[in-house]
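Protein modeling request. Please complete all fields; requests missing the sequence field cannot be processed.
Requester role: graduate student
Desired output: 3D structure, token encoding
Chains: 1
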Amino acid sequence: MGDCCTKVNNPSDGTQLRQGGDRITDQGPEMIKTYDPIHSDAVVSLASIQSGLCLSGSKDQSVALYDYQNHRLEEKWTGHDREITKVCYGQYCNGIFSASRDKSVRMWQRGKPSQVQIYTGHDLVVTAVDINDDNRLLCTGSRDNTVRLWDVEKGECLLENNIHRNLVTDVKFTPGDNSLVQTGEDKHVRIYETRNLLVTHTFPKKQYIQMCCDVSKDGNYCLTCSNGFGGSGCEATLYDLRMKAIVHEFKGHREAIESCIFLPFNGRNLIATASRDCSVRIWDRDTRECVADTTVSGSGPLTSLICYDDSNLCVSSFHMGIFQLQFSLANGTLWPVARF
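Delivered output (340 residues):
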């Protein structure tokens, strides 16, 4: 798969084949290298582990760990009875967590083909999962209107909060704090106290369903993104968690935003969004300026984003697996370089 491989035209699909089996398509500043897909159905959630590794969950009911620098499938786990909805990673417990439509969350570890723990108790699909700083607490959310806290090691449910019509879409712990943020289909964004799982603040109701959330590393800001149609809604919203106030809204996508993240780059406060309109945008958090964007034609809805310090991003899609993107702030460019 080295760069010295010969390129051969393949007029049947507009791509080029390279000796060694990978394909190249012309898109963006560089050609996209295409490798064997690691999932057989839509990829719906990504989680970061370390630079070069991408953790993914799919509708094909599997969880995969892929080395996108060397283009090698490291491990794959199966065991859920229904499709995966979310994945996350715990550094200190070495735990890979997958939520599923089978109403369970499972914990996996590298080198072990079977689950090492299972968390059951939700009555409907589990739509959200996150782990706290010290990896002792797991938070889950479901369409059964509940948010639950679990003992990671024992698999026991410690606390539960049931709010009428609160169909949970995402949860995130606040770093360095005993709180977490939750988004839902009731269009509210809530803050919980993790010591008792009571709601301490509810932000004013948004116009559209809030699809997901992220919290900045310093714990000061929360980012959410919304459903919408034809450019109405389809925005990301930045909240100041200290002042309990909306700071900015980021508008420009034409369809619902499925994923939003704070970027870890030093020197400038940036965020990224991925949308059903097949585009990824990078924004200046403070000025609301869109500093770079790219459209992945034919991908179908883009579903999840992760990013590392090396300026690589990965974005998952419904129809074309996972794309590795590279970002240059100096040039204001964002482009796909590989697909797997």
